[in-house]
């Protein structure tokens, strides 16, 4: 931290606890966040895969969207004008992955939307928080009340021991992947979803700011629960094949190019009951039927050298223009090899295709691979 100006950065309610736990703090999305703890990124990653990791994700945006009419269908339909997913069919107590699209069919942010009975609960990325809130206020205020939640922390508990740890505080064992619930506890009402960003089973828990430190301490006191920083969070999500907004998807990439069109339900596609009606629908619906010129794929370097973001990709070992680019790359501690994701020209997107990455002036072979790089363990 010495020599780095962090004075204009925000801090989460767990900041002092991070310091007490020996975290190394770095700037991230306008916040001072823990990149790692004394255990180190590699061990934190393995610990999350084998036991349980606790992450502070309080920098993310929490928003309640409440229909003025009292009828949730009105909020769901209004929200559907901003995203290419079906929210009308989202059942009470369930959440769904979505993305805000722009008029060009690019992705403004990816987000989670939950049906909590009489309102929608929305979680957005930290880096896009202000823009997303403004977007919702500008487009939903006629039909909905937009309440930005500023008095609650958000923590993620991930890994095979997550269920046992959290279940000792609140009855969460019966929840399935992408279920949501509001459950009372010694730490007040907890807003819980069985979800995460690691490829592991786990939970994301919103808790009142004044209870967050006590809640975190209670979890960290349990066998197998350790604090995990942003470094391991990144390698965990990359092994799981999950996008980082701003790196792997952005305002210029469409959901189809980004290979997240699985999130677009049939009802919003051509021929569906509520087809289109979202920003960029002309491009996105066309791409769903006719394909795209480029596609996000998994990439496994054939050697040990990692292929990091902005590495250019080529069809051949020499000559020719680049046909793609790496957007995320790191060493995968669980798979014990380097891994990347990025965009390639669609004719090279088939699994098993050999491509070449330019690393320090040399073209090194890599193989297009399926993601996730390691099977996910969500509780279906």
UniProtKB/TrEMBL annotation:
The keyword Transferase applies. It holds the Pfam family GCV_T. Substrate binds at residue 204. Residues 294-373 form the Aminomethyltransferase C-terminal domain. One of its GO terms (biological process) is glycine catabolic process. Residues 14-266 form the GCVT N-terminal domain. It catalyses: N(6)-[(R)-S(8)-aminomethyldihydrolipoyl]-L-lysyl-[protein] + (6S)-5,6,7,8-tetrahydrofolate = N(6)-[(R)-dihydrolipoyl]-L-lysyl-[protein] + (6R)-5,10-methylene-5,6,7,8-tetrahydrofolate + NH4(+). The keyword Transferase applies. GO terms for cellular component: glycine cleavage complex. PANTHER family: AMINOMETHYLTRANSFERASE, AMINOMETHYLTRANSFERASE, MITOCHONDRIAL. Belongs to the GcvT family. This is aminomethyltransferase. It comes from endosymbiont of Ridgeia piscesae.
């Amino acid at each position: 931290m010495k020599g780095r100006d962090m004075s204009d950065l925000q801090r989460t309610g767990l900041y002092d606890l991070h310091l007490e736990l020996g975290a190394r703090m770095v700037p991230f999305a306008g916040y001072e966040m823990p990149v790692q703890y004394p255990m180190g990124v590699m061990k934190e990653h393995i610990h999350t895969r084998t036991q349980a990791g606790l992450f502070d994700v309080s920098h993310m945006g929490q928003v309640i969207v409440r229909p003025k009419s009292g009828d949730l269908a009105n909020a769901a339909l209004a929200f559907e004008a901003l995203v290419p997913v079906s929210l009308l069919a989202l059942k009470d107590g369930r959440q769904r992955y979505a993305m805000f699209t722009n008029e060009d069919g690019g992705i403004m942010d990816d987000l989670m939307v939950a049906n909590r009975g009489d309102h929608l609960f929305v979680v957005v990325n930290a880096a896009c928080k202000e823009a997303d809130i403004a977007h919702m206020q500008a487009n939903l205020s006629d039909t909905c009340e937009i309440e930005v939640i500023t008095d609650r922390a958000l923590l993620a508990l991930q890994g095979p021991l997550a269920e046992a740890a959290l279940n000792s505080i609140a009855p969460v064992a019966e929840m399935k992947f992408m279920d949501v619930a509001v459950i009372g506890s010694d730490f007040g009402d907890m807003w819980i979803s069985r979800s995460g960003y690691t490829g592991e089973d786990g939970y994301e828990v919103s808790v009142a700011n004044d209870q967050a430190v006590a809640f975190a301490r209670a979890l960290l006191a349990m066998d197998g629960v350790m604090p995990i920083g942003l470094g391991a969070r990144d390698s965990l999500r990359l092994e799981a094949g999950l996008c980082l907004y701003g790196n792997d998807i952005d305002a210029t990439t469409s959901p189809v190019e980004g290979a997240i069109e699985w999130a677009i339900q049939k009802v919003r596609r051509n021929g569906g009951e509520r087809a289109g009606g979202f920003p960029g629908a002309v491009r996105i619906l066309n791409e769903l039927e006719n394909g795209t010129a480029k596609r996000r794929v998994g990439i496994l370097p054939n050697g040990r050298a990692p292929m990091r973001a902005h590495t250019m990709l080529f069809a051949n070992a020499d000559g020719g223009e680049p046909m793609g680019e790496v957007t995320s790359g790191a060493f995968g501690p669980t798979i014990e090899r380097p891994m990347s994701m990025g965009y390639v020209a669609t004719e090279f997107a088939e699994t098993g295709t050999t491509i070449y990455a330019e690393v320090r002036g040399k073209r090194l072979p890599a193989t297009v691979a399926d993601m996730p790089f390691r099977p996910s363990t969500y509780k279906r």
